[in-house]
Design brief:
Mean pLDDT: 81
Strand order of the largest sheet: 5-6-7-3-8-9
CATH topology of one domain: Rossmann fold
Order of helices and strands: EEEHEEHHHEHEHEEHHH
CATH architecture of one domain: 3-Layer(aba) Sandwich
Radius of gyration: 21 Å
CATH class of one domain: Alpha Beta
Distance between the termini: 61 Å
Number of strands: 9
Length: about 290
Amino acid sequence: MDARLTFIHDHRPVEPIGERPRVNASEPAAEPVVKLEGFTRRFGANTIIANLDLAIAEGEFVALLGRSGSGKTTLLRTLAGLDPSADHAKGGQSVRIPASRAVVFQDSRLLPWKRVWRNVALGLKGLSGRVRARAEKALSEVGLDHRLDAWPLTLSGGEAQRVALARALVREPQLLLLDEPFAALDALTRLKMHDLVLALWAAHQPAVLMVTHDVDEAIALADRILVLDQGRIVAQERIEAPRGERIEATRALRPRLLALLGGAHADHAASVIPFPQAGSLHEARA
């Protein structure tokens, strides 16, 4: 999490999950929160990101898909401000990211020697009573107001990720970066976390970039899906269907996105080893 986050004290309660209000078409378009132009990142002779253009609007939820080695981590580190060695001024590159940003990783990265509320308050400035009040409010938003003084090692995986979300959103970031935050969770907890993230996004209204390998997750949560391959954005899909009503969108998009990712969805049935029927099992043993 970036230590240079700015702090906003206007905390709003979590609203019911629903679609975000659309911007009036007659209003002038706001400047994007994130804007990269011609962004290139090399490590020695290896080009990881090549001449990439990216814009993320205020309050937009973007999902980033890509195979391992496609450049997702390098891009995320750049947007998080964790790659200070990169010289973005070279070759006409332009990189604009907000000062107020936060990251939620695949693992919660809580400090085991600090109680839950102190993990959320980490890095906040101000009087101790006010800092604790802010942490308590953030934990209440993620349904953990009863775990304020718990130790991190006593939390379930889902609870730990909720603490990580509270720690990110207590800072009211303009840009929230999610680095496969649900990958280690079981299926039911993962669905609950989807609902929680959408509710928090609606309440706090940051721009969100979520890195994921899960095509269905991307379709369910995002306004726009990007596919990164060999350091380039090779596809972009905008989803207009309301969340919760995306069955048809999933049927249409899923095969196309899997094909771009190199998935063998068409040959899936052939790759599954069938469970033998009772008769065939006895025959095999004979």
